[in-house]
Design brief:
By secondary structure, the protein is mostly beta strands. It has one domain: Roll (PH-domain like), CATH 2.30.29.30. It has one helix and eight strands.
């Protein structure tokens, strides 16, 4: 499942990425190759927790041993599907705030 994500990359800066959750890792690939940004691979063992916040503009927070990634998901993202895929693939604590049956 490929999801559109606006990742906070600076104080007032966001960068568009594609997020894939596959084989015990999260892969963030820049949507625009010339953006000067690199692909980010977050291995499952480095992840402490993931929080998905259901809002008008859904948000995601990925806590790792080395820091925290914050981003905004596309409004049309199927959050239930993303939540279930993250639980299945990462086998880590995944919190879904605001989701029906997941609060």
């Amino acid at each position: 499942m490929k999801v559109e994500l606006r990742l906070r990359t600076g104080f007032y800066e966001t960068t568009s990425y594609w997020m894939d959750v596959i084989k015990n890792r999260i892969v963030l690939t820049p949507q625009t190759p010339d953006a000067g940004k690199e692909k980010i691979v977050i291995l499952g063992e480095a992840i402490a927790a993931v929080t998905i916040l259901e809002k008008k503009n859904p948000e995601i927070e990925i806590q790792t041993k080395g820091g925290t990634f914050f981003g905004t998901l596309a409004p049309e993202t199927d959050l239930d599907k993303l939540f279930n895929q993250m639980k299945k693939e990462l086998k880590k604590k995944v919190i879904y705030e605001g989701g029906i049956g997941h609060a």
